[in-house]
């Protein structure tokens, strides 16, 4: 159903840049602004369907801030990646962390007893580390749920109680404490306030919407599309949390954090490889998408794992889950990852639909960009909104020049402004007079073209 003006409200931002955390040492960022955006906006409220279509065009959200990376300019191009949850079969190595964790929870033992930990909160002492067989592998869902108390027989007596529950994204001191510990231990980031945590991982513009299952779904599956926290508890203690968006066509991973104490249950892989907990979270999110699809969620079937960044070795693990696909940065068609890798190996910017459009030239990147006069004005001028940027700047930052006031792309686009009495008024953009202001037109141009004309017609741009 097509959205009505005012249902989805966003504030358009100018295209810009930031430092990059993918090509720098752990806990550091690039010295210059080498990660570029071709479009960005603040989403006040948007439907889950709108956001699904946005991420299919390369957008991503961080809290209520939504951005579309400029792959041609950025030092580390970010390609949208999705995994077909219906066709995914875990490899033996991917099943190992499930088995290891299940053995610890159920029997109180691990493969390496020197790595076993005293949880300290269990009412029952851990049983001797005598290897015991788990149920044979049948399905991913069955293996993952095997160690959850709610899926065990009523007379079960596991060594530890383990639960995984979904709840709508909300703040708690317990979650903040876990986030602070994770950021400090893993990312060497020691300054995280409640406000920063809420803005990053709690606040969401997504409007909850009922999922139309044909029959009542199992109680552990979500009833609504929207933003969720997936809580992992061992003996009542919060030890990990996944932040996910559940959308009409996918489960979208936003962030995952865990108590690093539990890294002792890792597989001893190199630092560039994900921890067992990160692997477990990915497998649980795959299983969630598949279980929802099997329960009848109409379009569900994929796990979106954020961005695939070939130039960043620590991000390549996402490609180990198959079959995965990358979105073409120009046509937004999906291409099998295996056909994309050879193109990315040879080029900094890779176009999969038309490989000849790929580019290995990075001369326009650091540090020359900081020395351009128009760039200095665009980024640093204190009166940015009163100073239109040049067409050269617009072309470099977004890949297109500023649209003209009568451009077809602005047809049926609506804005929201404050009326004389302080109330909000919906207006047709072309009839509003705002397009004569070049800085407004440039900002809206980047968003309209980044969103695509169909989505742009279904959102309302709020203008202060």
TrEMBL record:
Any idea of its EC number?
A: 2.3.2.8
- Pfam families recorded: ATE_C, ATE_N
Q: Where is the N-end rule aminoacyl transferase C-terminal domain?
A: 174-327
Q: Where is the signal peptide?
A: none
Q: What domain of life does the UniProt record list for this protein's source?
A: Eukaryota
- The enzyme's first-digit EC class, named in words, is transferase
Q: Where is the N-end aminoacyl transferase N-terminal domain?
A: 18-96
Family classification? Belongs to the R-transferase family.
Report what the protein is called: arginyltransferase
């Amino acid at each position: 159903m097509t959205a009505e003006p005012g249902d989805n409200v966003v504030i358009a931002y100018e295209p810009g840049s930031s430092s990059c955390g993918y090509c720098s040492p752990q806990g550091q960022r690039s010295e210059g602004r080498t990660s570029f955006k071709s479009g960005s906006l603040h989403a006040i409220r948007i439907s889950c369907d709108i956001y699904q279509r946005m991420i299919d065009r390369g957008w991503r959200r961080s809290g209520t801030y939504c951005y579309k990376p400029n792959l041609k300019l950025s030092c580390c191009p970010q390609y949208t990646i999705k995994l077909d949850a219906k066709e995914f079969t875990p490899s033996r190595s991917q099943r190992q962390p499930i088995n290891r964790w299940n053995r610890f929870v159920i029997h109180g033992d691990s493969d390496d007893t020197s790595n076993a930990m005293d949880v300290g909160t269990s009412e029952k002492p851990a049983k001797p580390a005598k290897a015991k067989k788990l149920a044979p592998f049948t399905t991913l869902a069955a293996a993952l749920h095997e160690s959850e108390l709610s899926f065990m027989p009523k007379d079960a007596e596991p060594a530890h109680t383990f639960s995984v529950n979904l709840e709508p994204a909300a703040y708690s001191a317990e979650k903040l404490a876990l986030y602070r510990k994770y950021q400090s231990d893993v990312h060497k980031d020691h300054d995280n306030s409640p406000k920063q945590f809420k803005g990053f991982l709690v606040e969401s513009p997504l409007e909850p919407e009922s999922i139309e299952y044909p029959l009542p779904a199992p109680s552990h599956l979500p009833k609504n599309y929207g933003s969720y926290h997936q809580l992992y508890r061992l003996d009542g203690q919060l030890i990990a949390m996944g932040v996910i968006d559940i959308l009409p066509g996918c489960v979208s991973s936003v962030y995952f954090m865990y108590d690093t104490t539990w890294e002792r249950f890792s597989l001893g892989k190199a630092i560039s490889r994900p921890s067992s907990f990160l692997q477990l979270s990915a497998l649980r999110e795959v299983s969630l998408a598949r279980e929802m699809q099997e329960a009848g969620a109409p379009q569900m079937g994929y796990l979106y794992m954020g961005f695939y960044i070939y130039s960043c070795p620590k991000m390549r693990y996402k490609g180990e889950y198959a079959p995965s696909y990358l979105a073409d940065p120009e046509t937004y068609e999906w291409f099998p990852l295996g056909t994309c890798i050879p193109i990315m190996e040879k080029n900094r910017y890779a176009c999969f639909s038309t490989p000849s459009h790929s580019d290995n030239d990075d001369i326009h990147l650091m540090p020359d960009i900081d020395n351009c006069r128009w760039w200095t004005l665009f980024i640093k001028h204190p009166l940015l909104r009163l100073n239109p940027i040049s067409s050269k700047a617009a072309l470099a930052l977004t890949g297109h020049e500023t649209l003209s006031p009568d451009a077809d792309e602005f047809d049926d686009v609506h804005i929201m402004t404050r009326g004389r009495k302080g109330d909000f008024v919906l207006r047709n953009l072309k009839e509003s007079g705002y397009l004569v202001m070049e800085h407004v037109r440039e900002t809206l141009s980047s968003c309209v073209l980044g969103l695509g004309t169909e989505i742009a017609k279904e959102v309302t741009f709020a203008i202060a």
